[in-house]
């Protein structure tokens, strides 16, 4: 038999040299000729109905090229990002909605035109000659909202009188599923010599990658094709979901994803800014670049965990485990982008 040479031997790393010498190609490193910059005006309330957005002051500030809102997106026929949040491999738990119905996935538009649903949600986009001009003008966009009741605790969100984030379904519980043999498990617990139970709250977290997200979008009017430079956990998903949101053929979108300065799950899904820079690039006829600040990232990066779980163990008189049951309640956030944290919480209760 031939020996497998690599087992037990030291494998020399290949990627370190160019990164240590500053030769990496991260999203913010890409620069296009004649590019401009954008900044996002974000909500400072967790829940409110948008009454009006005032953009005149921002439009008249130095260097400002354009200001876009959700009404502009609606007028141009932009669609919601078609996230695929439900885990679907053979090993994933099979999640369903309340009453064993299909899970309702509410639309996640590039910019909202009806309500804001979390602190940090993007409401308007300002495009300007420089990054500083764009950020300054974004602070001058006026947002008139009617504040609505809200809850930030997942347990409180399930109370009968809790304010609803979405009208459909008429509950904050998007997923409700029972796994296992509940009847037999309950009988084993009723006859167990000992029952041990604990309640845990796994706190909400965000990934905080070393490199905040960035995106550079360009449009070639001669070919009708778009190009996006953006690091992520998968260019194929970006290509499919962004092209659908823009209403274009996926063959007309090229994704260039080079080095990614950290992921931790936060880079696995499409962000609204990725579609916005491409859309804006076509509208103004110039490449548009977005770079997220660290403060923005804390508010608007996709987050995970926030799991409330009550776990119980049934034990016989000899100390042998005979049954286990758990109740998991997971906060998936304002938009159903990924149910992986909920699925993992269910799979890892042991």
Mean pLDDT: 93
Q: Sheet bearing the most strands, described?
A: 7 strands, mixed
Strands, total number: 13
Strand line-up across the major sheet: 3-5-1-11-8-9-10
Description:
This protein has 350 residues and is α+β, with helices and mostly antiparallel strands. Helix content is 22%, strand content 26%. The protein has a 7-stranded mixed β-sheet. β12 and β13 (321-330) form a beta hairpin. The two termini are 41 Å apart. The mean pLDDT is 93.
Key phrases:
alpha+beta; globular; 7-stranded mixed sheet; 350 residues; 10 helices; 3-stranded antiparallel sheet
Describe how the helices and strands are arranged:
Blueprint: H1 16-20, E1 36-42, E2 48-54, H2 56-59, E3 64-69, H3 70-75, E4 115-116, E5 122-128, H4 131-138, E6 142-147, H5 154-157, H6 182-190, E7 194-206, E8 214-220, E9 225-229, H7 235-246, E10 253-256, H8 272-284, E11 288-291, H9 294-300, E12 303-315, E13 321-330, H10 340-347
Parallel strand pairs: 1-11, 9-10
Antiparallel strand pairs: 1-5, 2-4, 2-6, 3-5, 7-12, 8-9, 8-11, 12-13
Quick take:
The protein is of the alpha+beta class. The protein has helices at residues 16-20, 56-59, 70-75, 131-138, 154-157, 182-190, 235-246, 272-284, 294-300, 340-347; strands at residues 36-42, 48-54, 64-69, 115-116, 122-128, 142-147, 194-206, 214-220, 225-229, 253-256, 288-291, 303-315, 321-330.
């Amino acid at each position: 038999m031939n020996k497998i040479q690599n087992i037990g031997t030291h494998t020399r790393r290949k990627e370190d040299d160019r990164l240590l010498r500053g030769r990496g190609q991260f999203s913010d490193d890409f620069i296009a000729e004649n590019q401009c910059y954008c900044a996002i005006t974000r909500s400072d309330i967790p829940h409110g109905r948008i009454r009006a957005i005032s953009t005149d002051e921002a439009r008249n500030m130095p260097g400002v090229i354009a200001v876009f809102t959700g009404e502009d997106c609606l007028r141009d026929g932009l669609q919601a990002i078609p996230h695929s949040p439900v885990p679907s491999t053979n090993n994933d738990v099979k999640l369903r909605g309340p009453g064993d119905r299909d899970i309702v996935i509410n639309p996640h538009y590039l910019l909202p035109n009806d309500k804001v649903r979390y602190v940090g949600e993007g409401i308007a986009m300002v495009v300007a000659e420089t990054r500083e001009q764009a950020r300054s003008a974004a602070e001058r966009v006026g947002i008139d909202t009617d504040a609505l009741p809200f809850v930030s605790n997942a347990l409180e969100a399930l109370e009968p009188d809790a304010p609803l984030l979405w009208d459909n379904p008429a509950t904050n519980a998007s997923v409700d599923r029972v796994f296992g043999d509940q009847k037999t498990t309950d009988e084993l617990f009723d006859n167990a010599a000992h029952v041990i139970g604990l309640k845990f709250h796994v706190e909400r977290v965000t990934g905080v990658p070393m490199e905040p997200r960035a995106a550079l979008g360009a449009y070639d009017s001669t070919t009708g094709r778009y190009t996006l430079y953006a690091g992520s956990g998968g260019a194929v998903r970006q290509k499919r979901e962004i092209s659908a949101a823009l209403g274009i053929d996926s063959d007309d979108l090229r994704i260039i994803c080079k080095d990614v300065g950290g992921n931790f799950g936060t880079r696995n899904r499409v962000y609204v800014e990725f579609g916005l820079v491409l859309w804006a690039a076509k509208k103004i006829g110039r490449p548009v670049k977005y770079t997220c600040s660290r403060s923005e990232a804390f508010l608007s990066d996709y987050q995970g965990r926030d799991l409330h779980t009550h776990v119980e163990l049934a034990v016989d008189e000899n100390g042998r485990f005979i049954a286990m049951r758990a109740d998991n309640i997971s906060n998936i956030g304002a938009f159903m982008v990924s149910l992986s944290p909920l699925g993992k919480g269910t799979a890892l209760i042991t």
